[in-house]
From TrEMBL:
Gene that encodes it: entE
Name by which UniProt lists this protein: 2,3-dihydroxybenzoate-AMP ligase
Broad class of enzyme this protein falls into: transferase
Record pathway: Siderophore biosynthesis
InterPro entries per record: AMP-bd_C, AMP-bd_C_sf, AMP-binding_CS, AMP-dep_synth/lig_dom, ATP-dep_AMP-bd_enzyme
Chain segments annotated as transmembrane: none
Native source organism of the sequence: Candidatus Dactylopiibacterium carminicum
PANTHER family linked: LONG-CHAIN-FATTY-ACID--COA LIGASE, NONRIBOSOMAL PEPTIDE SYNTHASE PES1 (EUROFUNG)-RELATED
Highest taxon of source: Bacteria
Keywords carried by this UniProt record: Ligase, Nucleotidyltransferase, Transferase
Keyword Iron: no
Length: 549
């Protein structure tokens, strides 16, 4: 990578108005802390305390710091430079945390890819982020990521380096990285972008979310306080560690900031998690609603001692009150509802809130300086208790996506509010109840899927004349995706169509769960209705037919 190509990249920026910067600093939210800065401090203060537990690994804070230094210096030795963007795709393994911390130490910018993502998503992230490297597993859950790396190199040759945690084949092994710690750069500017998180993609393709050291550290440091995470806590990562929720609310980064222990569960189900909870005396964990229900059903029958669990956080999708009661009864510990987004704003029920609030609301914002607006179609504020669109800005909510003018024009108001796309009700005291959404996406057990993105793929199939994708309620997933398809000629077989979708190199969770063939979509008298109306109409019709049968 030469200097010209570096200069040509779209700069990473996240800028708040200067008056607000002064305010956030004066209020003590932004403290000039950086990721490598706090990790270095903890490595000194908690050197011999256990930081990360996963598989056969138990790293102390000092060991994690050294491992991160080896990886960071090794990447510099390959020719990567501070500021380079690096795709990271690893499961819940200690190497994931070491790689992310190593990139922080080298001043490089991780781009968090989920283990489920495939070539279509990966190539999109590589192009949008202008990534120069890809760090991934050899085999992960039976899938060969080296094959994915080859496909990526063929599609986006600018991704010059591939590093594999495991059997590397023609690539570079993570374990072989080596370099001089003295080559690692000085601490970055706390206001600079530390990494790119990904949005669930409520409309169209996933977008890249630039988060700064200052803003992100504030969000997990303040989360620690609201979630009771301190030096004695043991925090379990049960959801994919690259997700914003288990990373920062307060997540494994919050846990590391507190000097606590992070336990990585290889899978989200009770089978993988319960023995680890018992062995490591886990005190807190974050789950999505369907998992929380699964855990709540399994816990009373389990032979594992789960008595160390103090807080179970549930978020990512709506937890309805009946489900909240089941979670409390089944797990016998404090439930904390979490309504957050990778773009910023996170709401929590407080640990000492009355049961009525914990069961019926999705919490209230972290910060006194989180500005929340609930507005109608015309943008006018609605009274407390009425439903409206949620807009927000504040000390840890982004002002813009990376490298995406069209999305920015859509998703942010002129005065810097992020349009969350959620429809909420605000109660006195600032508690929010999520009512629904303004955009057409499917929230499938916490994974957001854009209807538009899936329709675009389906339309590329020669057997599909037209396709409309909607969310329908699902007993296990909360919501599942249902594709209404007008065939072109002979009907394709649903299993073949699903297999064809997977072969397009899409994350498996995006393949429609259900396919319904129809002869035509209804149109209005004028003969034309919007995709939005069409989706709403098909969904309604489907739901009323379900009720009748
Ligand atoms: P993303 O922007 O991809 O990080 O996804 C964030 C979105 O997930 C939010 O805007 C909500 O639509 C949804 N979400 C997260 N937590 C909750 C929750 N507790 N209840 C309902 N929806 C949620
Ligand atoms: O769904 C989310 O994106 C989410 C949920 C809870 C999130 O980003 C978070 C907490 O930080």
């Amino acid at each position: 990578m030469n200097d010209t190509s570096v200069a040509a990249r779209v700069p990473l920026r996240q800028v708040w108005p200067e008056a607000l910067v002064a305010r956030y600093r004066a209020a003590g939210y932004w403290r000039d802390e950086t990721m490598p800065g706090f990790l270095c401090d903890r490595a000194e203060r908690f050197a011999d305390d256990v930081a990360v537990i996963g598989g056969d690994v138990r790293w102390t804070y000092a060991q994690l710091w050294r491992e991160a230094g080896r990886i960071g210096a090794g990447l510099l030795a390959l020719g990567l430079r501070p500021g380079d963007r690096v795709l990271v795709q690893l499961g819940n393994v200690p190497e994931f945390i070491a790689v992310v911390c190593g990139l922080f130490r080298a001043g490089m910018v991780p781009v968090y890819v989920l283990p489920a993502h495939r070539i279509t998503e990966l190539a999109h992230f590589a192009r949008k982020a202008e990534a120069s490297a890809y760090i991934t597993a050899g085999l992960h859950e039976g899938f060969d990521h080296r094959a994915l790396a080859r496909a990526l190199r063929a599609e986006v040759p600018a991704v010059a380096h591939v590093v594999i945690a495991g059997e590397a084949e023609e690539f570079i092994a993570l374990s072989a990285l080596a370099g001089e710690p003295a080559t690692l750069p000085a601490d970055p500017d706390p206001r600079s972008v530390a990494f790119l998180q990904i949005s669930g993609g409520s409309t169209g393709l996933s977008k890249l979310i630039p988060r700064t050291h200052d803003d992100y550290i504030y969000s997990f440091r303040a989360s620690n306080e609201l979630c009771g995470i301190d030096h004695d806590s043991v925090y379990m990562v049960a959801l994919p560690a690259a997700h914003n929720f288990p990373m920062s609310s307060p997540g494994w980064l919050g846990a590391l900031h507190a000097g606590a222990r992070v336990v990585l569960s290889p899978g989200p189900g009770p089978d993988a998690a319960f023995p680890l909870i018992a062995r490591e005396r886990v005190t807190a964990v974050g789950l999505v609603p369907p998992l929380a229900l699964l855990w709540a059903d399994a816990a009373p029958k389990s032979t594992h001692d789960l008595s160390s669990l103090r807080v179970v956080q549930v978020g990512g999708a709506k937890l309805v009150p009946e489900a909240a009661n089941r979670v409390i009864a089944g797990l016998g510990c404090t439930l904390q509802q979490v309504f957050g987004m990778a773009e910023g704003l996170v709401n929590y029920t407080r640990l000492d809130d009355p049961a009525e609030i914990i069961v019926n609301t999705q919490g209230r914002p972290i910060s006194p300086d989180d500005e929340v607006l609930v507005v109608d179609d015309l943008g006018n504020s609605v009274p407390d208790g009425a439903s409206g669109y949620l807009l927000t800005r504040g000390p840890y909510t982004i002002r813009g996506y990376h490298n995406d003018d069209a999305a920015n024009a859509r998703s942010f108001t002129a005065d810097g509010y992020y349009r969350t796309g959620d429809v909420v009700q605000r109660l006195p005291g600032g508690y929010l109840v999520v009512q629904g959404r303004a955009t057409d996406h499917i929230n499938r057990a916490g994974e957001k899927i854009s209807a538009e993105e899936i329709e675009d793929h389906l339309l590329a199939n020669p057997g599909v004349f037209d396709a409309v994708v909607v969310s329908v309620p699902d007993e296990y997933l909360g919501e599942r995706s249902c594709a209404f398809i007008i065939p072109r000629g002979e009907r394709p077989r649903p299993p073949a169509l699903k297999a064809w979708m997977r072969e397009r190199g899409l994350a498996a969770f995006k393949v429609p769960d259900q396919i319904v063939f129809v002869d035509a979509f209804e149109t209005t008298a004028v003969g034309k209705i919007s995709r939005r109306e069409l989706r709403a109409q098909l969904r309604e019709k489907y739901l009323s037919q379900q009720k009748e049968s």
